[in-house]
Design brief:
Length: 192
């Protein structure tokens, strides 16, 4: 998968710009990789050069972002030692390490969803409405990374509604609207 993704990343430079399109992994009709993920890889390749290191960075960077975002989310809910344990467990656990070593675009989905979760918690606890908007953008951008994000975003939103409904956390109504606004803006290209 890593080599096929590298090939698609390098071939993307010769194609017309299409941020929200898909590129077949091996051949047309096969699994497709979202161009948003490939453009992120292309940025890394342009900055670091084409090498084994830059190829590994394409998956390692989302893994690092995920561990940091989960640390931040845990810090909103727990003490610093517990948050450090969460971040370290994410950084060292088998699944995140394996996924990030194989170069799968699912690593980008998990990174965007982790950022969204952290920003949602910050917006609820610190009352920063702009964090809610950014969380909506992150949820929307995750939809361009891996097909399973559609289900993950739906489950995440349903879980937030349940938490709100059970009065475990009651953010202002405006926080919900800014979250949904960010999500709607990020998903507009999907409507076409």
């Amino acid at each position: 998968d890593e080599l096929a993704t590298l090939r698609n990343t390098l071939m993307l430079a010769d194609k017309p710009f299409d941020l929200f399109g898909q590129s077949p992994l091996f051949q047309p009709g096969w699994v497709e990789t979202p161009n948003l993920y490939l453009y992120g890889n292309l940025l890394i390749m342009n900055l670091a050069g084409i090498s084994l290191t830059s190829l590994k960075l394409c998956s390692a960077i989302p893994g690092i972002i995920t561990a940091l975002a989960l640390f931040g989310a845990a810090r909103q809910l727990f003490t610093r030692p517990v948050a450090l344990a969460v971040g370290l467990l994410c950084a060292l656990a088998s699944w995140p390490v394996r996924l990030s070593r194989y170069g799968w675009d699912a690593t980008a989905m998990v990174a965007w969803l982790s950022l969204a979760w952290w920003l949602i918690l910050v917006s609820w606890h610190q009352r920063y409405r702009w964090c809610s908007y950014l969380a909506g953008l992150c949820l929307g951008l995750s939809l361009y990374t891996y097909v399973a994000a559609r289900l993950a975003v739906a489950v995440m939103l349903a879980g937030l509604v349940v938490v709100w409904w059970r009065r475990a956390a009651r953010p202002a109504v405006g926080t919900w609207w800014t979250l949904l606004g960010g999500l709607a803006i990020a998903t507009l290209p999907l409507v076409e």
